[in-house]
Structure formats: structure tokens, C-alpha cells
Write a structure and sequence with these properties.
239 residues; alpha/beta; TIM Barrel; 8 strands; 18% strand; binds D-xylitol-5-phosphate; binds zinc ion
């Protein structure tokens, strides 16, 4: 199981300290939400912030691009220290596959995100190319929103595909994740949990991470099958 605190909920005046706090909490990944004011109605931060955080935090950097033109950002984020770059399925067929190839060519892991109103079937053609599938459990743009329970069957479907097709992508959830909703997602097959408010807004993040991990492990229907963070990308491409 991977827990990924989302820096969006951190004190933005102290990002370096907050990243260190996340690293000390026992969480494996740091989730970095990139918003462009166009794909979503909010602006967060860019590649320079990631580059500044890279030397102070050894965690796996999970970069979630909520951006209309991710192609102009892939290289800066790759160079800035992203370990994985997630793009959105809503960008459309014509964009998604070339973006997946580009992320791979930069030597980074590839994630694909699906928003709550988007049918999970939209992700199916890409599954074998992914290291991670992100089922959004809020409409992206802001932290602190309530979990949308109607997204849970999408997690179950994504987990079913993974088993049927013998694939090993991680199955991530993001938005409104608390101990209760994390348990619901873990029971549905999720293995990677992004949590902003419920981790960064706790004075003792380490205790919060330990508790969340215990709860998701207890709720998981079976041992994990997803790839380990350290493993190389699932497929190599020639360009
Ligand atoms: C939503 C972002 C999330 C967000 C989650 O737009 O993609 O990563 O930070 O925040 P919480 O956990 O507060 O819902
Ligand atoms: Zn996110």
C-alpha cells in the first residue's frame, strides 16, 4: 500500500519544511497537484517548486497534471525531479497516447487519471501502457472537498480489469480521502491513497499515516499485486 500526502493542503509558505514533514511521516510518495487555471479553475505551482523540493525530500514524486497543455510541461517536470507524471483521460484520444509515449521517453512512470463524470471505460484502451490508474474521487481543482461515493464502482472495475488482464498498474484514489473513505476504496481494490487535508492538516502526520495504513491494510480484500515503486517502467518503447 502506498500513502501519498498531497502538498496542496500544506502550508504554502513552508513547502520545503512541509515536504520534510511528509517524508518523516512514513508515507511513501509525495503527491504534487499541478493546476493551470484552465483545465481546472485554480492555479497551484509549477516545475520550479518541484525542482526546489527535489534535494530536500527523497520521496517518490507523484506529479498530477490538471493541465490543458501537458505537452509543454512534461520536460520541465521530468527535469525538475518528477518520478511519475499523471495526465488526464479527458484530454481525449488524440492527445493521450502521444503523451504516454513522451512521458516514457523521458524515463518517467506514467499515470492516467479519470474524473468523476468520465466513464472508467475511457481508460481501458490504455491500461497496458500504464504504471498507475488514478480514479478521481472529487472533481479536481480544490482540496478539502467531500468524497464522491459514486466513484467506488469505478475502482472495482479497474481492479477487475487488472486481475483479468494480468496487469500490474497501481490503482490510486484522490480526493476526500479520510480513514473512512480510504477503507471503502481499499475494499474496492485501491492500493495507492492520495490524502491532502486529512494528513497535512494534522499536527502529527506520522500518527495519521500510521493509522490510515492500518485501516487500509485491514480493509484490503487480498495482498497487493501492483508493481513496486522501485521497479523500472512496465514497458520499454522505441522511438
Ligand atoms: C484535487 C487534487 C487532490 C487534492 C486532494 O483537485 O487532485 O490531490 O489535493 O485533497 P483532499 O485530500 O483535501 O481532498
Ligand atoms: Zn491530485
Amino acid at each position: 500500500m502506498v500513502i501519498a500526502p498531497s502538498l496542496l493542503a500544506a502550508n504554502s509558505g513552508k513547502f520545503a519544511d512541509e515536504a520534510r514533514r511528509a517524508a518523516r511521516s512514513g508515507a511513501e510518495w509525495l503527491h504534487l497537484d499541478i493546476m493551470d487555471g484552465h483545465f481546472v479553475q485554480n492555479i497551484s505551482f509549477g516545475p520550479d517548486v518541484v525542482k526546489t523540493l527535489r534535494p530536500v525530500c527523497k520521496m517518490f514524486f507523484d506529479v498530477h497534471l490538471m493541465c490543458s497543455q501537458p505537452e509543454i510541461l512534461l520536460e520541465p517536470f521530468a527535469k525538475g525531479g518528477a518520478d511519475q507524471i499523471i495526465i488526464h483521460a479527458e484530454l481525449g484520444e488524440a492527445q493521450v497516447m502521444p503523451l504516454i509515449w513522451k512521458i516514457r521517453s523521458l524515463g518517467k512512470k506514467v499515470g492516467l487519471a479519470v474524473n468523476p463524470p468520465t466513464p472508467i471505460a475511457v481508460a481501458e484502451p490504455y491500461l497496458k501502457h500504464l504504471d498507475l490508474l488514478l480514479v478521481m474521487t472529487v472533481n479536481p481543482g480544490f482540496g478539502g472537498q467531500p468524497f464522491i461515493h459514486e466513484c467506488v464502482p469505478k475502482i472495482q472495475q479497474a481492479d477487475e480489469w487488472r486481475r483479468e488482464q494480468k496487469l500490474r498498474y497501481r490503482l490510486e484514489v484522490d480526493g476526500g480521502i479520510t480513514n473512512e473513505t480510504a477503507a471503502e476504496c481499499a475494499a474496492a481494490g485501491a492500493d495507492t491513497f492520495v490524502a491532502g487535508t486529512s494528513l497535512f492538516r494534522k499536527p502529527n502526520m506520522k500518527a495519521a499515516v500510521t493509522k490510515m495504513r492500518k485501516i487500509i491494510n485491514a480493509a484490503a480484500p487480498r495482498p497487493e499485486v501492483a508493481v513496486a515503486t522501485e521497479e523500472p517502467p512496465v514497458a520499454a518503447y522505441n522511438f
